[in-house]
Amino acid sequence: MKMDHLRLPAKIALFVLVGVLLLAAAAYASGNDTVATAMASATAPDGAHLGPDTGVPWWVWPTVLLFFCFILGIIAVLAGVGGGVLYVPLVSGFFPFHLDFVRGAGLMVALAGALAAGPGLLKRNFASLRLALPVALIASSCAIVGAYLGMALPTNVVQLCLGGTIVFIAGLLLVSKNTAHPVVTKQDALSVALGMDGAYRDPATGELVQWKTHHTLPGLLLFIIIGVMAGMFGLGAGWANVPVLNLLMGAPLKVAVGTSKFLLSITDTSAAWVYLNRGCVIPLMAIPSIVGLMLGSFVGVRLLAKAKPTFIRYMVIGVLLLAGGKALMKGLGI
Amino acid sequence: MSENAKHDGKASPAQITYANMLFYGAWSGLGILVLTYFLYISGIVPPHVPLKEIPLLWSQPVHTYLELGHVPVGWGWLALIGQGDFLNFIGIVILASMTLVCYIPLIPSLLKHGEKALATMAALEILVLALAASGLVNGGGH
User: What pTM, to 2 d.p., does this model score?
Assistant: First the structure.
C-alpha cells in the first residue's frame, strides 16, 4: 500500500480532503477557544442558549462543507461505499454542527444520491423492484423506529452507539469478501412466493445472468436491524444491505449493489421525514452537503477507471476507524 | 412484471415507469433545491432565521434551534414558505416525496399481473411513508 500506487487525481483528492479536514479542525478549535468570551448572547427561559460566536462569517462553513463533500463524494465512489457512511462520522467529528443536524443532513445526502442513481439502476435491471419491495417495507418501517430512537436517546448515547457502529463497519469493510455470482442451488419457499428472482444482462460480457435468492427469511429479519440503524444514525445503509443481499441471500453482486442503492431511496425517505418534521434539517448546511457529494460522485465515477481503489478502500477504513474512535470518545465525554 | 420481462434481462414496464417518474422528480427536486438555495444565500429572498445567527444555533441541540430560531416543526414551515430558508423546503420535500409518488402507479400494475402480495406490500409502503411524512410519529426529542 504505497502512495506510488495512486494515480494523480486520487492523490490530489486525498491531499485536498486532508487539507479541508485540517482547516475544519483548526476552525473548530478556534471556535472552542472563544467559548468563554462569547457564550450565550441569548438565553431562553428554559436555559436553551446560542452557541459560541466564533467570529467566522456565516458563509465559511457552508463553503468548506461544499468542498469537503465534493472530495468525500469522489472518495466514496472510489472506495465503493455510500456517502452517508462517511458523511455522518466525519462531519460530526470535525465540524461544529450538532449531531441532530448532521444526521438530518446525512439522511438527505444519502437520499438524494439514491434518488439520482435509482432510475439508471432500475432501467438496467441492476436494481430489482421485486427484490426491493418486501425488503424496503421492513427496512423503512424500522427506520422510523430508529429515527424515533435516535431523537429520543441522549446525544452521548447516540454518539457512543454511532462510534461502535462505525468501528464495526470499518471491520466489516476489511473482512467482507463479496461474491460476484453466489451459488444458489435451491430457491426457498418464501423467495418463490415473493418472486425474488430475475435476470440482467452484464454489459461487460453481454451474458444474461439469471439469479434467485435463498435464506430469504433470515435476510428479511436482518433488515429490521439495518432499518433501525439507518434511521438512528442517518448513515444510509449500503454497507449492510450489500453483504446481506449478496452473501446471505445470494443475489449477484451487481444486483445487490444496485438494489441496495435503490433501497436507500425508500428506507432513508421514511427516516428523513421524521428528521424533517422534527426540524433537524438546516438548509444552510444540508444543501451544500447534498450538492457537493453529488458533484463529487459524478467526478468519482469518471476517476474510477483510472484510480487504484484498493489503497483508497484501506484509507477509508482508516478514516472510519479514526472517526468511529472520535465518536466513541465524544460519547464517553473524553 | 411478467415472467418474460423478468427473465430476458429487461426491466418490467412497471419498473421502467417507476424509473422514469423517479428520474424527472429527483432531478426537478435537485434543480429547485439549487435555485432556492441561491435565492436564500444571496439575500434575494430574506430568511426567517438571519443567516448570521445560524452558526450560533447549529452547534446546539435541535430544541435550541427550534426555540431560539422560532422554527416550526412538522408542516408548520408551509406558513413561512415566503422566507428564504423555508423556501428551500420545496426542493427537500419533493425529494422526500418522490418514493411515495412513484409507488402509487405500482399498485394497479402489480394487480393487473396478479401480484396480490407485492401489491399489498406496495400499498403498505405508501401508508408507512405517508405516516412518516404526516408528522404523526414525531414523539421524543432530547
Answer: 0.83
